[in-house]
Amino acid sequence: MNRIFLIILSLVFSVVYVEAQSTYPCVIDSKDGSPIPSVSLLFLDSLQNVTATGITDIHGMSVIKGNYKKNSNSLHLSCVGYVSRSISLLALKDTIALEPTHVNLEKVEVVAMRPLIKLSPGMFTYEVSNDSSAQNKSTLDVMHKVPLLIVSANNGISAENGKSIVYELNGMRDPLLKGDVMTIFQALKASNLKRIEVNTQPGLQYGSNTIVVNIVTKGHLEGLLGTIYTRVSDESMSNSIFGLTKNKNFTVSLNYQNIWDYDHSRTNESKEIREQSTLFYQTDKYIHFDGYKSNAHSIEFSSSYEANNTTLINLYGRVILSNFSNPHENSREETVTYQENGALSYSYVKKNHRLFKNTEYDATISFEHSFVKSYVLNGKFYLGYNFYNRPYTQTTSSIYEKIDTLGLGNMSFNAFYNYVEKEKSNIPVHTFETSFWHNINKAQRITLGGKLVLRPQSNERSLLKSSLANKQEFLGNDDSAYNHTQQVANLYGSYAISSRKLKLDLGLRYEYQKDKLLHSDSNHNLRKHFSNLLPSLSFAYQCSNNMSMELSYDMNVSRPNISVLDPYVDYTTPLQLTYGNTDLKPENTHTIDFTINQRIKRYTLITSLTYATTDRLILNYQYTDKSILHNTTGNIGKKNDLMLYNSLSGRLSRNVYARLMQSISYVDYSAPKIDCKQHGWIYFVKGIMEYELPKACYLDIEGSYLSRSILLQGRGYAKYFYSVSLSKYFFTNKLRLVFSADNFFNIHKINETEKATNNYNVKSYDKYYKASFMFSAILRLGKLKARVKETDKTIQRDNDIKYNYD
User: Are strands 760-769 and 719-730 parallel, antiparallel or unpaired?
Assistant: First the structure.
């Protein structure tokens, strides 16, 4: 019975195979008319992309694979010993003659290129295996070719549109790509990859402000891999050792990193005007910071087990230790306040020492299972738990070196005192997450999921005041403490319709947040409940092989955290009060985005138009009352933002890759509560270029400019950045040396910020060391190789995960 079934199956396959081929035309020698075997045929479209292929048999007859009649414009023929020839399909005949080259061998000319970037609904795909220039590089070296991804030696990997990035390995949330992904991508050779996918519409399980980057390997990776990495710059130094072993279904990795921070000094100058105050009319302030100093040790561990290509069990952990190095920063403040008539009100010189101790913990365990039917992926289930905590203790010591209250007499002398403020906080976060999706049929899918976040936070604060004349004379001790419990529940569901050219996703989220604050001062106790229904819609359409469109709508809420809800009053700055607001409500944001993606020969063009409106805007603001400056937060306004964005990337030549990004935005703020309006234009441009030099050298050039930002109570400062980086490989690309220099012409930069409201305005100038110089070296040891499955039974997966192991 099995033998009969195999015979029938073979016959069916043979019929299908023969049906997919056609025999046409015949190729002969132009001199003697004899048939020419082994002639290569390439059918090309208008962009010189291959649409079908073929080869001639011993009779000169062409056996063609694929539908050459669809989208084909021309035929290119080539064979050793004959002159290559291109013919329009409109002029194609039953017999084609090729001219022999006799003694002179015609050079081989490449007339068609496999596209490196492919478009599909809601997806970009970078075909790494088609890129011959990528095969001897690391994965990190080729990531900049992926649309929407920006790779920087100093700032890591980020998205063009500012969205967060979630990494997957073969469609699974592998812990290998959680945490320090830069080290992983530096260690993993690009020759092991098949493609890199960017899902711009990943669904509600990730959120609208996230893109998913899926790394698809050529097969199961096996072997041992290690890297030794060192990086030295003018403000930090890091050294790391990374090891990875993959044996069949097990993966284990360990990464140790030592990070030294020794920031440059910086200064801040400000001029403040309080128009309603005759006694404290103008305040000039100068602060010098000597830079943050720290020495941290990071240990990162991950392991996973994959069973039958359908189940993945993950374990990840990371701890960052820095307490023994006593992370700290010192500052010196000089302040002079004048009366409205120009007479001195008061002045002082104060020194501050900030000691910041903290330890960071991060751990994740997860289970992921794919539901497979007849070797086709039909659904997926995910269950995970994450624990994160960063307990810290911050101690600030403030001592007045000099004080003059000549214009005040003794009436305000009590506002000045030395103090030691100590804050201790513990903020563990427990996150439980689950998601499930199932294909109803080939075109329809449902997705269900939820997330529960628990944050049991505790905080203790003490302020020990001492006399200016005698530091040993204590004036009192102000203590406060609170326990804050926060619970956030998120439930969502979506329905999706998809085809080869279309993708439509309708979703609805329900979010509930409960806050409970028990304060040492019972008058500050509070209970808050927030609940929201948040609809979303995403639509993607594939117009052609070279063009796709995306349209999305999303509603989001931003809820106030405890730092702005806490009513604790900070009065350590003379004549200024800073406090929270217990009446804050969530702000609502509605976003509509329309994007066109195009592939124009070797280039990828992305154009998007985005409109966002935010109501009940939560903003920090200042106002004066009886000569006292109040600094607090409130739902005080509304914001409208319209942005046009363009990105063009691709190869300028064989050795030059470039990307140009630009955006122009119109921002409008209105805050009737404080009688404030602000609007204006913001322009941004950024260019990136990589030039491949001889002898395994690479030159990278980057530059950007951002005009002054629009603030509710004023204008921010303009930003610019430029960088030149030179790298070289040694020992068959096992050792890579990199030297980069940033902003090296104007070493120091001054940023100007302006804020103004009724009867109060302030201008501030930040001066800091803008330039940066960096040298790094990475040595790669060991090797990973792809183990291709020997069976033809492969699991067919959806776009967001691996298709097969061919």
Answer: unpaired
Q: Are 606 and 597 in contact (CB under 8 A)?
A: yes
Three-class DSSP category at 743:
coil
For residue 148, the surrounding DSSP H or E stretch is none
pLDDT for residue 797 is more than 80: no
* DSSP 3-state of 599: strand
pLDDT value at position 800?
A: 32
- Structure confidence at residue 70 as a pLDDT band (50, 70, 90): low
Instruction: Give the residue among 503, 508, 499 at the shortest CA–CA distance from 441.
Output: 499
- Per-residue pLDDT reduced to its tens digit, 116-130: 888 889 899 999 988
Sign of the alpha-carbon dihedral angle for 204, 206, 209, 215: negative
- Residue 458: how many CA atoms within 13 Å on its side-chain side? 5
pTM summary value:
0.76
In the sheet that holds 61-65, the strands lie side by side as: 85-88, 74-78, 40-44, 50-56, 61-65, 21-29, 95-98
3-state SS of 169-236?
ECCECCHHHCCCHHHHHHHCEHHHEEEEEEECCCCCCCCCCEEEEEEEECCEEEEEEEEEEEEEECCE
Q: In this predicted model, what pLDDT tens digit does every residue of 459-494 receive, in sequence order?
A: 898 988 887 766 666 667 788 888 989 999 999 999
Cis ω for the linkage preceding 175 (within 30 of 0): no
State the Cα–Cα distance between residues 514 and 509, nearest whole angstrom: 17
C-alpha distances (whole Å) from 271 to each of 282, 283, 334, 588, 755 are: 7, 6, 12, 35, 11
Distance (Å, whole) CA 260 – CA 297: 9
**With contact defined as beta carbons under 8 Å apart, do 64 and 73 qualify?**
no
Closest CA to 665 of 709, 713, 605: 709
| pLDDT at residue 662 tops 90 | yes
Give Cβ neighbours of residue 775 (< 8 Å, ≥ 6 apart). 231, 232, 233, 737, 738, 739
Close Cβ partners of 765 (under 8 Å, ≥ 6 residues apart) = 268, 269, 270, 750, 751, 752, 753
| CA–CA dist 685, 394 (Å, integer) | 39
| Kind plus residue range of the DSSP H or E element containing 14 | helix 2-19
**Cα–Cα distance for residue pair 538/505, rounded to 1 Å:** 5
* Measured distance CA(598)–CA(216) in Å, rounded: 23
Mean of the per-residue pLDDT values of the chain: 83
Q: Do the bridges between strand 74-78 and strand 149-152 make them parallel or antiparallel, or are there none, so unpaired? A: unpaired
Structural Rg of the chain based on CA atoms = 32
The rounded distance, in Å, linking the Cα atoms of 806 and 787 is 10
The single residue listed with the structure tokens 């790494």 is 128
pLDDT for res 488? 92
The Cα–Cα gap between 747 and 772 comes to 8
Give the residue among 364, 181, 166, 160 at the shortest CA–CA distance from 255. 181
Distance CA 146, CA 117 (A): 8
The segment with the largest mean pLDDT, out of 33-42, 367-376, 432-441, is 432-441
Q: Where are the alpha helices (DSSP H) in 89-145?
A: 139-142
Per the CB < 8 A criterion, the answer to whether 75 and 86 are in contact is yes
Measured between alpha carbons, how far is 242 from 255 in angstroms, rounded to an integer?
A: 4
Token couple for 7: 């015979």
**What DSSP designation does 187 have?**
H
- Give the list of residues 6+ apart from residue 493 with CB closer than 8 angstroms, or none: 204, 446, 447, 448, 449, 507, 508
Q: How far is C-alpha 223 from the geometric centre of its chain's CA atoms?
A: 29
- Distance (Å, rounded) from C-alpha 572 to C-alpha 398? 9
For the chain, which domains are there? 19-98 (2.60.40), 232-787 (2.40.170.20)
User: Strand 576-578 relative to strand 628-653: parallel, antiparallel, unpaired?
Assistant: parallel
Q: Which amino acid is at 18?
A: V
Beta bridge partners of 485: 456, 516
3-state secondary structure of 414: helix
Distance CA 708, CA 692 (A): 35
First-to-last C-alpha distance (Å) of the chain: 31
